[in-house]
Amino acid sequence: MKQEDLETKVNDLKETLKKLEARLTVQEDIEAINKLMNAYGYYLEHWQEDQIIGLWSHRDDVELEIHDTGLYKGYKAVAKSFQFGDHYTAFNGEKTAPPEYLHILIPNAGIIHVEPDGKMAKGRWYGSFLGALRRGGQLRALIGCGIWENEFVKEDGTWKFMKLKFNDIISSPLDEGWVKTPYLANPPANDRPASGPNTHAQTYPSGYIFPYHYKNPVTGK
Residue 143: is it exposed, middle or buried by C-beta count within 10 angstroms (0-12/13-18/19+)? Predict the structure, then answer.
């Protein structure tokens, strides 16, 4: 093999290795973001507010919007919104979950896109829900489903929440079903007012489609 041919082959191999390393980094990023989403669900189930807020970036432009509870902007506002003793007022401000409390929210069907610079990412998931929460003065068995459209930031090599937005499709009493009762509203939290009004929050049977963060993977439209 001629010297110039050998040099060309070596350069081609270096370029291939560079591309493979970039693809591996993206896959590692996607795995880390999925782990972040799953951890959020487990902490939410057990009312571990300190663990949940530990998943967030401390930036001033972080945002949180969980259906009809308002839009929270900035790390301090987001942290306060996860004070569950305030949020679930029917539990009298307790700081630990009562035994009957149940809030299982499972992310699935995730679609994640990492920005080319590897510093930001967006993801969409369904959230399947089973709960036992106080509504209307009584403990209700709830079944539900919603959609997340979230944004993430990579800080010092670690992925964190940047924006979390969840739109409920249904949140219904199990004994009534979503056709009869599509949604039971969250109780108000007057001592932790939101930074602004909701930007979405439309439930079944509105036909509302929570906007996609991505283009069609086949047509590009």
Answer: middle
